[in-house]
Batch of 2 targets.
Target 1
Amino acid sequence: MQNSNRFHYGVVYGIFAILLLPLLSTALYSLATRWGATILPDGLTFDWYIQLWSDPRFLLAFGQSILICLGALALGTLLIVPTIFVVFYYFPRLKWVMNLLILLPFAVPPVVSSVGLLQIYADDPFPIVGTPWILIFTYFTIALPFMYRAIANSMHALNLPDLMDAAHLLGASTWQAFLLVVLPNIRKGLIVSLFLSFSFLFSEFVFANILVGTRYETLQVYLFNMRHTSGHFTSALVISYFMFVLIFTWIANRLNK
Amino acid sequence: MSYVEVTNLAKRFDSTPVFKEINFTINKGEFITLLGPSGCGKSTLLRCIAGLNSVDNGSILVDGEDITSLPAQRRGIAMVFQSYALFPNMTVTDNIAFGLKMQKLSSDEIQRRVREGIEMVELNGREDHYPHQLSGGQRQRVALARSLVMQPRILLLDEPLSALDAKIRKNLREQIRLIQQELNLTTIFVTHDQEEALTMSDRIFLMNSGQIVQSGSAEEIYTEPADAFVASFIGNYNLLQAEQARAMLGLDTQLKVAIRPESILISSLSPVDTRSHYSQPISGTVKSSMLLGNVIRYRMDTDNGELVVDLLNRSSERLVSRGTQLELQVNMDEVREVA
Amino acid sequence: MSQSVNQSSQEMDTATPVSRKKKVSRERWVAAGITLPFFSLFAAFQIIPLIWIVVNSFIYDEEWALDNYLEILDSAFLQQAFWNSIVLSFMASLFAMIIGTMGAYSLRHVNTRLRDFILSFNNMASNFAGVPLAFAFVIILGFNGAITLLLKSIGWLDDFNLYSLSGLIVIYTYFQIPLALLLLYPAFDAIQKDWEEAAILMGASRAQFWRKVGIPVISPAILGTFIILLANAMGAYATVYALTSGNYNVLTIRIASMVSGDVFLDPNLAAAVSVLLVLLLALVTAVNEWLLKRSYHAK
């Protein structure tokens, strides 16, 4: 009994160590003055962070990333929430269609989608390749599975038909019932999904690089383009980026409790 | 000589005792019920007998053999779980055969015993079904058969009926009791449902906070509650504080008093049974009435507190309406002082 | 019904079954209309690109033809990409699945605080993939990486190359572990403690319980997780692109270079390779479904 317990703790700490190691070394690297052909760095410094956070190109990419993510999520919320409500309330038999649709962004690799997107939206009538718009629209589709699952789960827990009947009997119109009863009840699920989607979209690289690249640089593309500069500098960038994502994931986890 | 002997059994989780100084004996073929509220330690006691939990002190003897430190596999004890614990990847037949295969019996023997088991619990025709294709009642029958074919020395039943519908529960209750009597199988049944305990058992061990507070036949426990806890747990006893009892019944007592609702009569409605000794009339007002099939239950307000009175529902009598003043008399032979 | 009653209140007061039905059906049309922007946008940016790919994979020199597919059959380079993708994804998914299964099982045997901490940490780690991960791996496992040096100094490692197949398997395994753990941890919920106890009371050992009940019950979940990992690895692009600057030959790198590279652009060939990649993923999923159908779950 005691032995097997020790084994389980060993496995869990082992996996933790494996997952932590790259992060930890990157963090250490970002704080090192120089880390050449030795196992430990020579000295510690904050210079790389100062250099990073005073680079205007970094700040621009950072801001543009946030802008695109917020845009995609705003668009998503505006379109997805009413659609889920309509499907659940008016056409519950069509839920399977939605379940099939949300599989697509998972099943089709981004590289494959971008082949089509690149050709369709390069020229008229919608020449939006190379602009933030194509990212906002594409991110809307890849955030859909996250948002749909969370909102549909909340909606499912509501017992929508009874709730709407009750609201109608009390004199509310469908619109009022949606606004005053349904929306407040799915708010938590929605907010959690927004935080999770934000972390996910913020980490997106494939679409950003292939569809837009340096014409409207996001943080991930900036990071990639900085690959030939000092490793300490890119490490500071990786850690800054990861801390940002971490905060959002952490908030989502907290809200979910 | 008793078949099962439990002596001084004690169990702690960390430092909090789950139960202590548990002593009892069971005869071969007896149906024993461990009855008590949730958290009283009855399930843990059962698991200790099964060998799924270890004990900290005391001994368990079965047929003269000390099994206290024997692993669960070698105790010859079978158990039916509340959740059925059927293996979802096996058919009814495979579930029932599982234990027999573990014993490496010949396949002829396994086939024969499985068929017997299926017939005993009346599951013919379901042999090749998987658990998720069965109803709750059918699943519990499979679990029962799976235990019975092991021909255990003791059968343990851990709240086997509590996940089922009322009607199925009643059916299965009778079936379990019939099979148990037919096989003369020593059985320990755990439940928190007093009706289940009263209808099924040869003897009931009533447990509260880690101790057996009373043991005896259903009738003994029902009519002679050992203390206020038993009185309140079994039936719908009226429980009076000492001062209430003194004022209402003129009793000279320092203890609480328990009165069964059916031992109170309403003088104007029912004749007094002359063989019994009755209290002085107590005046009361009808607060509510409830029809429980063959019984009408009145809640009465008296000067010294509320009383619940059960009357047989006879067609000659009409329901007395709320607010009516009535005279009550308590059959003093049925009044019990309890600690 | 009086003439003076105005139109709208008449509609409300005399909700005969017929007019009520009409009103409900109009409401449903309005409701359906509300979903229109959602479905059009989703179609425009998810479904139409997919259709474009399928259609254009059959167009060669502006004519209907199978030449794109024939070219794949002729090209040793493209076939190598298929083969590399399959080997890399299969190995990495296998390792991640083994580690994830062990982790998910062991997580059930440690105290709650550690378990909750690891699960939250795992959620966060699942975001650590792609370009940042590639950079981190260069730092620890590159030619002058700290771990490379450490392992070399104690003689455990002779010629490890992060930029080769074995290096890629390591990094792919790494970013698949959080996903494997995320998917497998709930799967162990399916194994109830009662089952193990019931089996033990019937004379089974722990090993027998796992062989006869535990593994059969959990294997569909493990297999399903493996399929998801496989698809995830086959579709992965950012990590290998950032690590090797597009010099390691896998499918996603090939596809991307044919639509956004500097030298050799051939979107129609890229479409054909994409179709084959998606078909490959579909085939794997279909095999999984078929295996599931044969198991007891479907009966």
Target 2
Amino acid sequence: MKQFIIGLFLFIGINTFAQNEKFQAAMGGTLKQLGEAKDASSFAEVAAKFERIGDAEKTQWLPFYYAALTKARMSMQRMGDQDQLADEAQVLIDKAKAIEKNSEINCVESMIATSKMLVDPQSRWMQYGQASMQFLEDAKKADATNPRPYALQSISLKNTPEAFGGGCGVAKPVADKALELFKTFKPASALHPNWGNEIAQSVIDGCK
Amino acid sequence: MKQVGLFLLLIVLSATGVYSQIKISGIIKDTRGRNVDAVSITLMGTYDGTISDSTGHFSFKTFEKGNFILEAKVLGYKTVEHPITINTNAIEINFSIKEEVTELKAVSVTAGSFEAGDKKRAATVLSSLDIYTTGGANADITATVKTLPGAQQVGEQEGLFVRGGAGYETKQFIDGTLVNNPYYSSIPDIASRGRFAPSLFKGTVFSTGGYSALYGQALSSALILESIDLPERSEAQASLSPIFTGAGLMQFAKNKKSSWGINYGYTNLSFYFNIVKQKPDYFIMPEYHSGDANFRIKTKNGGIIKYYTTFSYGVAGLRQPNIDSSILKNAFSLKNTNWYNNLSWKENLGNGWKMNMGLSYSTNIDNYDQQIQNQNNQPVYTGKIYIDSLNFTLNNIQNLSQIRTVFEKRIAGISTLRFGGEYMYAYNSSKFSNPNFSYDGLLKDNFTSLFGEADMYITNGLAVKTGLRFENSSLINKTNIAPRISLAYKTGKDAQMSFAYGIFYQKPENTYLQTTTNLGYTKATHYILNYQKMNKFYTFRVEAFYKKYDDLVKTYPLYNNDGIGDAKGFELFWRDKKTIEGFDYWISYSYLDTKRNYLYYPMQLQPTFAANHTVSVVTKKFVTSIKTGFNFTYSFATGRPYYYMVPNGNKYDIKDQGTTIPYNNLGFSLNYVPSVGKTNPKTFWVIVASVTNMLNSDQVFGYNYSHDGSIKQPITMPAPRFYFLGIFLSWGVDKTQDAINNNL
């Protein structure tokens, strides 16, 4: 009987371990798929997969975060209706936010606002441009060691005309700051966000 | 050991289960049988699923066994769930998904109306920024609206002359209530500006006909203005120009629930008129004081209470040569006091119910005076009645009190029912006297209306709006019932057709009611067909209309409602914000064919305010490197008819008639915005320079005839051009306060 109870515990242990392993494996696999995604349909597939994982898990913010990040990138790269993709990303990031509020989520919120702004910069600057910058400030405040808000800020400054307070002159120091933070930044796990170095690097390279 | 064996068996069992995958596949169609792509398929509670491909097919494999729910989800459609049992066989399952009727996707009736402002729809036709940056419009709402199709280029009097309608056939509404005196008081042959600044409004709907049953008493057109809600921040403002100075304060409460603001402005044209010579001789330089105040409070349930009041006092006096005598002048002067109040309350009542209540009170006092003067500016009497009778005084008092309530209820999806009523009390007193005649009239009207309207969205692609309006005026003691119907049908991506029909009634103008109140409503019936293709960057629309006028007021030989007329035509509009980076332009063209027999006209004639062809081209280019916007507006209209008529027996005879020269106007404005793009600038300032009629084109709006008809004088602008130069500053109060505090 004792052995049976031990066995049962072991079984439950293995099962929960299996559940966690399943999550790790599914997330890892989908992240790999994200890295390899090229076109709209493969990105959409990845976003849907992250969303399914998030819906099944219910308490993990990472799947919704990645689903939103993927949709935000699709929106920015105009892989479909820019406005609609940004709206879809917003729904997903709101789900992530309901589970946990953090600096990384602020970064995605900023990207969504930037994409919305880019649809019609002249008339949307006031609303979305300002919101995007505010999210980056929130992200910095929530985690001063996170390099991503600096990386995102550097690229948007680089893409803003000098007359509007952008340009390489102001973008470069921000990119330098991002690269400096990337040197010491350690993601909490292999599944946690660890992207953006190449963005800051592209700003440095593009501003030579 | 036995137990361990059982445990191992369990593991083996679950392991074998894991390694037999089952395929689930199918196809997704919408209710019209079209394949839908990018639909997310999820085996609920698991990670398994896929998205549908471009042909609507989906297919995935799962290790799971047992009873599950398979979900098909995509934005814009209702989510569908199917229970499935996964055993050992492949499953094929097809979904039929239904498009959701949403405000963003659903068609809206566009026949007859130009919607502008920050409505949820991504694309707008005109925003308040557009009004500020329309070259030559000098930040006047009416002047900008005149560049849209349907409106005439009438330069000698204020008002919007729409599709063969007179200026008084267009009414303005702020937050639902009628505005009695939307323009500064008129001076003969000169158009006045609108009283209200474009920045007061977040939304503008310019209806050129077929408008909603919620509004009435406008035969031709309604300009529906919706005031802004809470401001974005607290700020102080100042403006400085050779003709105008002003200052204001806007305070936004810390809890972001309320705000208040005050403004004062002073206008004096004497400096400007000394530099830019005017045709009339101004003996009282136009001078205005104006002040306004507002508060806005958000309520608990997401409603808002808004109050706006504006007060102005102005004087002007000018001498123009008398047409009948080369040695005499008409010295005309005007004193105006106007006070306008508007209180509105929007509230969510729960259960899909909303309420919109509006209260407004306005009073307008005009004191006009005209003297015949000699070359030394002394009053003279000639003994000739037709000259001496031009010595007159006229004192008008117009008061209007209104209350209006509209209830709104969501029924089934986004279909909406609206109904309500309004009551207006109008008090109009008019005292006129000249050497031969005097008049002291008082008109009081208790005006009631009841109205209802239903917006029915049958699908995203088909919407119908039906409405009914009932009105009663105690002054003319008449009642009317006006039906309205319009529908919109989606014909393709971003494209739709709409049709509108409606009957519109309007009380005769007070000028005629002062002679007799034994008149009925004037009536117009509108038929409008519209095609529109619009996305974020382009708008293309074409509209055809037919408008039938009945029961227009005749004043000769008798006062009655025997006047008739009609108007027909078509209009084109094209706006493009995208093709050339940073360059925004629109083109409007209107063709109008109209005739009417009203007032003293002896037969059906094309009225003097109607041109057959009107074109406007508006361009805006902002050059970011120099932070400057360059805006040009070119307007053209073919000549308008003019008549010289004299009474002969029981009708007027046309003694002379003709067509004026075509109208040309090239307006330009430049905005220099040094703080553009700066994040949270402390001082935000704009320099505006503008000029109308750059090409110095001759503009003739008609002719005045001498008493015997031997002399005809063109009606022209008081000066060929109007120049403006001003600087507008604003400071974010909160930020300034922070800066001060941080430095202490």
